[in-house]
Amino acid sequence: MVLAWVRGAAAAIVALAGLSGVARAAPAMWEVSDGDSRIYLFGSMHVLSPDVRWRTPAFDRAYARADKLWFETRVDAEPAAIKALVDRYGVDLDRSLTEKLPPRTVASLRAALDSRGASLDRVDRLRPWAAAMMLSVLPMAQAGGSVEDGADASVTRQAVRAEKPVLAFESFEQQLRLFADLPETVEVQYLDDVAAEQVAPPRRGVDLQQAWLKGDVDRLGAVLVEGMRRDRPELYEALLKRRNLAWAQVLDREMAGAGVELVTVGALHMAGPDGLPALMKARGYRVRRVQ
Which residues constitute the signal peptide according to the record (predicted)? Predict the structure, then answer.
């Protein structure tokens, strides 16, 4: 569940429904190419129910062709190391969570936790960003979803078994620090958004898992990415834009070589003008959607 806190960050503003499979599922994927290099960009879902069928012949072909695989971070890190980092960056033993929150947010948080059968005591020593992550994951976990069943973990296990090179754009510590380095006011805003929208889901919300399975990047971008950019610009810069720019720079260097690579990162990193397909196209590469 700890890893899911980070993987589910951008998706925390919606409630995720567990689906048992959708006909003709085809999560979005792009091909970036030049004369002698090809990189497939696959927008993943980090937390899934075990019965969701998301793999397609197109994805399997991309995986088979790839000489190297890229992920946001390694999902097979040691649990003890993960716990130590979460304790370091996500726990505050000096000030309780409720001391940092305005009364409205405390009330929303309490109501959201109560609706999930959890208590405020469970999160009262977490920093606001970590409490937001925990709260955002509860619906998925209670519906049977897990990081282990997510696309990233599934592909990582397959690659390790096949002894394919597995690389990561970021360490787990770097991912945690994305949140730990946010101003406390932004952390509190983030928690307030998650709690309020679990108590009263927005009318124009989107079922992220269903949109992902359909490859509906436009809907994901319009509702989630654009909403974050407009309403929470500091979160958008930290969680999406700066990371996408850094990853595109890495991929630019990879394109200078030759061969085929597969990039599997969260689907929201593919949406909008700051998404990876748009950034790679702006660098002069041929970019076409293949799924």
Answer: 1-25
Alpha-carbon distance of 219 to 59, in angstroms, equals 21
- 181, with CB counted inside 10 A (0-12, 13-18, 19+), is exposed
What does each C-alpha distance from 71 to 113, 129, 152, 194, 265 come to in angstroms?
32, 23, 7, 26, 6
Q: What is the pLDDT of residues 56-84, one digit of tens each?
A: 999 999 999 999 999 999 888 888 988 99
Residue range 121-142, pLDDT digits in tens: 989 999 999 999 889 888 878 8
Q: Is the distance from CB of 80 to CB of 48 less than 8 angstroms?
A: no
In which residue are the tokens 């695989």 written? 69
- Is the alpha carbon torsion for 266, 187, 113, 202 positive or negative? negative
Pairing of strands 68-71, 259-266: parallel
pTM: 0.86
CA atoms within 13 A on the CB side of 280: 31
- Look up residue 7 and give its amino acid: R
Other CB atoms within 10 Å distance of the CB of residue 238: 18
The answer to whether 188 touches 105, Cβ cutoff 8 Å, is yes
User: Which residues, at least 6 apart from 119, have a Cβ–Cβ distance to it below 8 Å?
Assistant: 113
Q: In Å, what is the CA distance from 74 to each residue of 13, 169, 237?
A: 24, 9, 23
Is 241 in contact with 230 (CB distance < 8 Å)?
no
Rounded CA separation 133/1 (Å): 9
